[in-house]
Amino acid sequence: MASEPKRCGYVAIVGRPNVGKSTLLNHILGQKISITSRKPQTTRHQVLGIKTEGDHQIIFVDTPGLHRGEDKAINRYMNKAASSAIRDVDLVLFLVDRTAWTDEDQMVLEQVQRAGLPTVLVVNKVDLLEDKNVLLPHLQVLADRGEFEAIVPVSALRQRNVDVLEQEIIKHLPESAHFYPEEQITDRSQRFLAAEIVREKIMRQLGDELPYAVTVEIEEFALEGEVAHISALILVERKGQKKIIIGEKGTRLRSIGTDARKDMERLFDCKVMLRLWVKVKSGWSDDERALRSLGYDDV
């Protein structure tokens, strides 16, 4: 009896900010590689996540949320990264939030329609619906907005119906040899993941106080035996932002460091010695040269 052919393909996860793209990716992979918070625009880079199971390999591209916002270089970068991800994939997962439909959702839909690629509409956060009876009529309204291969309601956070979504994805994978080793779950380096973990902890702890103009640069990542020595520089744009992140007598910065170190130790499976500094670099988020030096390619 002939074995099943190998299948492998690229899948872009797109949607407006804060609809749960990164949460969905992390739960499908079974490991966090894309940072999350309740703040919109947490994801700034395309993050490649890889899931291999038997004869199937799915290569996910998690993208920044397409949005209308300030005309800063970093905003242009994020929109460009999200738009470019749609072009070179086999399938698009278009995430929307349960019953809401916004101008930004419409903007993403138009981008997806222009690409002309097979698209699955994923309706996220359905667990938050108080009245489940509104879901079916809403799905019908969504179905009328465009041509979709399927419409799949899920709860990325509660992992409800995610297995159904995975089976739908597999249907659209082309026959192909696998591009990555079975054990690899991302193409991103440990330095990149370390920087993203620190940035996530800043966003999670500071909430509404958080300035969006914050980024993290890893200055040292050295493995000595079973210990990773990591030095991270947190860049902000104003002195007041630096004070917020450091906190009274350094308490906030220490708390950020503790939370980040714990996540790094789980991800890297080794002891981590983490050192954090905060530095003011005025205007970095609107400086294309500075953004390139910080790893924001193709600004």
UniProtKB/TrEMBL annotation:
Residues 198-282 form the KH type-2 domain. Residues 7-175 form the Era-type G domain. PROSITE patterns: G_ERA, KH_TYPE_2. The keyword Cell inner membrane does not apply. Its main location: cytoplasm. Coiled coil: none annotated. GO terms for cellular component: cytosol; plasma membrane. Residues 124-127 are annotated as: G4. GTP binds at residues 15-22, 62-66, 124-127. Belongs to the TRAFAC class TrmE-Era-EngA-EngB-Septin-like GTPase superfamily. Era GTPase family. Monomer. This is GTPase Era. It comes from Seongchinamella unica. The lineage of its organism: Bacteria, Pseudomonadati, Pseudomonadota, Gammaproteobacteria, Cellvibrionales.
